[in-house]
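Field guide to reading this record: the first block holds the primary sequence, the second block holds the structure written as discrete tokens, and the final block holds curator observations. Each block starts with its own label. This record concerns Dual specificity phosphatase 4, catalogued under organism Chelonoidis abingdonii.

BLOCK 1 — SEQUENCE
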Amino acid sequence: SSSTGAELLQCKLQSPRNHPFRTDVGGPVEILPFLYLGSAYHAARRDMLDTLGITALLNVSSDCPNHFEGHYQYKCIPVEDNHKADISSWFMEAIEYIDLVKDCHGRVLVHCQAGISRSATICLAYLMMKKRVKLEEAFEFVKQRRSIISPNFSFMGQLLQFESQVLATSCATEAASPSGTLRERGKLCRHSSLGWSLGSEPWEL
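BLOCK 2 — STRUCTURE
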């Protein structure tokens, strides 16, 4: 008997090599000098990880294995890619982990199965929180680097809620600050012919 469309889609999602968007093409993409986004395929390629200087992995799934636990530092966020999953409850823990790796002068790969929804959501939350930018701006920035990102509808809703929290905190911080240094350093700047680039020294925030 023939497989249903849903079964075929699930099969493709479980196998990065067969994914219609070819999630394994190239290597993980650099979001910031210490933050990379990729798929389970990338997380299984020690040659890629070592070439990029990856020292830690943030596994945003409940079923992707940690292949090299004796070689890299790992943290797991056991979230499913569905509309019932509460990924926002993990945002701060994920952000703290990424900052911990950064502060140790390391580099972290954030991945899920396909590198499209769950791991992209975490990277978006990180940019929104640390750079104090809106979801739309963070999304365009990440999409310029990994064009196939597509957080599910529920995750986008959770990111929008997170945006309101982040911007409320940002406004309070700027109101108490005598200058606009935080705002300017956290800015994601668009250049007409160069795509998206970060404002000056954003990772020093």
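BLOCK 3 — OBSERVATIONS
Strands lie at 29-32, 35-38, 56-59, 73-76, 108-111, 188-191, 195-198.
The helical segments are 5-14, 40-43, 46-52, 91-103, 118-131, 135-145, 153-176, 181-185.
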